[in-house]
Amino acid sequence: MTIPSDEADLFSDEARLDPYPIYDRLREAGPVVHLTRTDLYALTRYEDVRAALMDWRTFSSARSVFVDPQTNAQLEGITLCSDPPEHSLLRSVLGRPLRPELMRDIAPRVEAAADEIVGALVDRGRFDAATDLAEHLPMTIVSDLVGLGEAHRGKMLQWAAAIWDVQGPVNERFTAATPLVEEFLGFAAEEAVPGRIVPDGWADQLYQAADRGELPREKCPVMMLDYVTPSLDTTILAITNMIALFAAHPEQWTLLREDRSLVPHAINESLRVESPVPQFSRVLTEDHEVDGVPLAAGTRVALLYGAANRDPRKYPDPARFDITRRPSDQLAFGRGEHVCIGMNLARLEMSALLQRLADRVERFDVLAARPLLNNGLRGFEHLEVQVTAG
Ligand code: HEM
Predict the structure, then answer these.
(1) How many CA atoms does the CB half-sphere of 76 hold within 13 Å?
(2) Which domain, by its residues, includes 364?
(3) Based on the structure, what is the number of domains in the chain?
(4) Spacing, Cα 251 to ligand 1 middle (Å)
(5) How far is the CA of 230 from the centre of ligand 1 (A)?
(6) Could you tell me the distance, in angstroms and rounded to a whole number, from the CA of residue 229 to the centre of ligand 1?
(7) What residues form the membrane-spanning segments (predicted)?
(8) CATH classification at residue 168
(9) Whole-angstrom Cα distance, residue 275 to residue 354?
(10) CA–CA separation, 96 vs 1, rounded Å?
(11) Could you read off the pLDDT of 141-164 as tens digits, one per residue?
C-alpha cells in the first residue's frame, strides 16, 4: 500500500495559527501520511493515536518525542523521552508531589487564590485573560511549590516557551529560542541546586531522592525541566482557550452557570477543541501496521493529538464546542505510560477559576486577541476581555 505524502509545514506561522484545515486534509488522506518536510509519518485519527499511546513497546519514546534529530538525540533519557523500566523509575520520583492526595491538600490554597484573582479582575471589568488571569496560579502557587526561588521567576515563562520552541524543526523560532534554552539549562545545573532552592520544594525533593540513591544525581537538573516546562504555558494556554471558547459560545457559559456538575466536562471539552499541546512523536521499535498501513521499524511517527481530538469518526461535528458532550476520553493530556503527570494539578487550577468565574461573570466579550506563535504549543499570548458581572 502506498502511503500518501503531504508537503504541509505544521510549524509555519500559518499552520500554527490555524492547523485545522491541514489536520482535516491529512485525516482524510489516509490513516498514515508522510510529511515530507520533516520526514514524519503522521497519525491523525483518534483510534490510531490512542492505540499508539497505549503501546509503548512498539511506539517508543526512548529516542525522544520531538522533531529535530539533534534535539531528539540530546534529550534522550529525560522522563518524557524514555521507556520502562527507566521511565517508571523517573516517573515514580517525579510524580510524588503530584499524587492526588497531595493535590487535595493544596486545593484550599488554589481555591483561595482563584477567589482573590477573579474578584479583583471582575471588579476591574476588563483584563487580559492570558496574563492577568491565566498566568496567576501557575506563576504563584505552582512556582512556589516547584521552589526554584524568586530570583529568576520573571524569566521562567520565557525559558519555558523557548524549550517548547526547540521541540519543532530548526526554523526561525527554534533558532531564536536556542540561546534561552542554554541559559535555562545553565541555571538548572549551576544555580538551582540544593542550598539555593527552596528546602523541601519539588525541585529539592529530586535531589533528596538522588541522595537516597533512588535516582542518578546528574538527572536532577533535567528533571527540573519536567516541573517547569510543562507546568506553566500548558495550563496558562488551556485556561485562556477556555475563556475564548466561552466568550464565543455564551449559551455554553449559561449552561455551565446553571449546572456546575458540567465543570469537569467543560474542561475536557475545551482541551479537546483546543489542545494546547498539539503533538509529540514516537519511534517504531519493530515493523508495524497502522490500520492496514505497513510501517518499518525505526520510522518516526507524529501523534497529532490536536487532529485526533477533532476526528469526526469519534466526535460528531468535532469543531463544535459543546460541554454536554462529556469527552473524558479526549487526548490532550496524552494516554498510557506517558499520560500527563500534572493533569490533576492542571484540572484543579482550571476548575477553581471556572467555579469562581461562574459565580461572578454573566458573559465574556473579547476585545482583542493575539495568538501565540510557538513550535510546540497553541493558544493565545493575549486575550483582552470585558466581563459583565452578574
Ligand atoms: C492543561 C495543561 C497540560 C496539558 C495540556 C499537558 C499535556 C501533556 C501531554 C500531551 C503529555 C504527554 C506526552 C507524551 O505523549 O509523550 C504530558 C506529559 C507530561 N506532563 Fe503535562 N500537560 C499539562 C499540564 C502539566 C502540568 C501542570 C505539569 C507539571 C506539574 C505537567 C507535567 C508533565 C510531565 C512531567 C509529563 C511527562 C510524563 C511522562 O513522560 O511520563 N503537565 N502533558
Answers:
(1) 10
(2) 5-389
(3) 1
(4) 31
(5) 6
(6) 9
(7) none
(8) 1.10.630.10
(9) 18
(10) 46
(11) 989 999 988 878 888 999 999 999
